[in-house]
Known about the structure:
The complex is a heterodimer. By secondary structure, chain A is mainly alpha-helical. Chain A has helices spanning 5-11, 19-25, 32-51, 58-86, 97-139, 155-178, 190-201, 204-220, 240-254, 273-293, 302-306, 308-315.
Amino acid sequence: MTKEVEDIIREKAFFELTPEELILIKEFAQDEEEYANMKWFLDETKATFDADKIEAPKELKGEVMSHLTSTHKKKGYWLNSVGVFLMPEGRPMLRKPAFQLGIAAVAILGFLFLYDNSNELYQETIVQNVVEEKNAEQSHIPAGKEENFEEVDNESDQQEMAIKEEVDDEQLEIVDELSKTSNEKIVRDEPILQEELILETEEDEVQEVVADEVNMNRMDYSFDSPQTDDIYVPEKELSPSVMDSISAIANTFAQPTTTLSSTHHTVPENADLSFSEVTAVRAKKSMNAEAKASEEILPKSLHINATKELNLLFFTEK
Amino acid sequence: MKLFKKDYKAYSDEDLMRFFLKGDRKAFEQIYDRYEKYMINFFYRKLWSDREKASDFTHDLFTKLIDNPKAFDPSRSFKTWLFSVANNMCKNEYKKQEIRKPTSHDIPEGVDPKSGAALPDSQVDKNNFNEQLKTELDKLNEKHRQVFMLRHFEGLSLKEIAEILEINNGTVKSRLHFATKTLASKLEVYRKTLT
């Protein structure tokens, strides 16, 4: 710390000054006389000022300290207990409780966040798989029949259409099997047929499909007025039991509400009698199920009413 | 656990303020002990030698420091900062009062002569010196007087005075040189009687 000129003058006599100090004091005194005068003035001024200084009252410190106590008391709890506990001095950062608690909180929140995300992801995956399965089922549409389906917007309609296709395929298969030129009779295994029918009719969609199948088949198969050659049945092959059943079925088909009688107009020549019985029974079963499940089924085609004559031809032996 | 007590007297003012900012009350107590006398005499000189006012202003100054210790910039000198705050408090008080008492503004009282009693010649001369000093200081420009008082009454260095008054070091030096030379030449006559 550099000494001030006044301090040098006050502390030292003129002969005690160094050459550097002599240069410094030249601003205040050119010679020893002026130096002495200045020295006296500065001493007297300091003495005068020191004598005039006052002492602070003793209660002043007490008042200031009490203000300090009241102010810092509010912060004391946090600084001296909580703060010290969380952030103690002398410990590395990793060992401070505040840091460790922070890490633990971040870990817990991260785990909860990931758990929620994984749960949502799992549910989304399940839904996606179901949708994919159903889409895969829907993609199996036989050729030529795509145009028959109406455009649907919602999944329920798509499912319905898928099921219709399944039933349609199965029925085609059955028809193919039955139409084979084999002498093998289809055993009138009513339980089996009933099972087949039950399997088909247990679902409400199947019942509707069967009803709609009429339209599809009607569209696919050309509806010509039945030819007597087509439906010719040799008389000698008819048995009384068959005749009874045929008459019963004819009566059933004579009802205006029937919707399935027209499906049989294309029975080929020399068809096996059991085929008609099969279709008749199936039709009857489905009609009964439809009656239970839905309202009165209106005929879907005028041909059904107009084919009363057709039915008679169909079931009348020549 | 602390095994050794801190020796607060060995720490600088700035270090004590850092401790105080962390909540060390004893650091503040040490600072108070160091500057109590300085500040009360500063206010006493600046506020018309009014002891009560000086005491009140000193109390206000330190309570301000307690309430807002962060106002102090640790990069600065605490002493000059404290005197700057005190100087500003006095300026505000002048504005409030809207009067200025130049006769006893910067000159300490307490040199009243004893009434009626015969004083020795030396004492008379001394009293005369004091009054003459007061008179001559009044005649000085306020800028010169302020620098002279801060240097000789408060005991501050030129650098500290420059920081408090926010002027250059050279300006302080020139003003102080002028005031000292002027007063010394005018009061030289009393040297022969007092020595």
